[in-house]
Each structure stands twice: as C-alpha cells, then as structure tokens.
Amino acid sequence: MGSTVLSLRIDGELLDRIRQHAARRGMSVQDYVAQTLIRDDFDERFKVAVDETEKFYGVATE
Question: Rounded distance, CA 29 to CA 20, Å?
Fold first, then answer.
C-alpha cells in the first residue's frame, strides 16, 4: 500500500498539545497522528463487527 499526503490546518494550541503527546511517546507528530487515526479506525470497525455479531446471534445489547 502506498502513502498519500494529508494536509490539515489546525489551531496552534492544538498542535502544541499534539506535539506534547507525541513527545511523551517518543514519536513524531506525523507518526502520532497517523497511529491515532489507525487506532480510532480499528476501534470503530471492531465495534461494528461486535454489533453485527451480536445481531447475528441475537444477543441483547444494553
């Protein structure tokens, strides 16, 4: 899979917070943002998969 450039315009204060979070993890801002997006995407797909499985098996969700 190739890579593509994504350009974002964000507030300076938000960028500072992202830099701090990335630094705590020893990551670049780019890697931190990409990993966060990947994690959120996985969490969303996992939740959908669990919901679909529960619907298939008729498990009541609360």
Answer: 9
